[in-house]
Write a sequence for this structure.
């Protein structure tokens, strides 16, 4: 049996390049296989993703219903009587502030007019 090819000897440039090409092609092949396996999982939609999207849609619908309910309550239960009472309270507050400002203005004028001369 001829085992001369197993004997150690100098490595030629051709062998070195062939080894580099072989290792590069093995690496590319592994990368291609891993890419194909990952592509299958990326394209598939998981049930959790579908459930999450359905929950978000349901939450948006409930939010719209809640806003519609708030508007309906405001229209139904905020009557003219409530608005009239609020307007009266605002008017009373403005009148009170005007009265206080009038008193303050009179006190300041009196202080300026009757200040002692040095």
């Amino acid at each position: 049996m001829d085992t001369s090819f197993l004997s150690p000897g100098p490595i030629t440039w051709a062998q070195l390049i062939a080894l580099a090409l072989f290792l590069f092609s093995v690496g590319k092949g592994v990368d291609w296989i891993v890419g194909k396996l990952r592509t299958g999982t990326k394209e598939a939609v998981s049930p959790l993703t579908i459930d999450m999207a359905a929950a978000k849609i349901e939450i948006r619908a409930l939010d719209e219903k809640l806003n519609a309910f708030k508007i309906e309550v405001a229209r139904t239960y905020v009557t003219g009587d409530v608005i009239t009472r609020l307007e009266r309270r605002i008017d009373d507050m403005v009148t009170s502030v005007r009265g206080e400002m009038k008193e303050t203005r009179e006190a300041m004028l009196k202080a300026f007019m009757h200040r002692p001369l040095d």
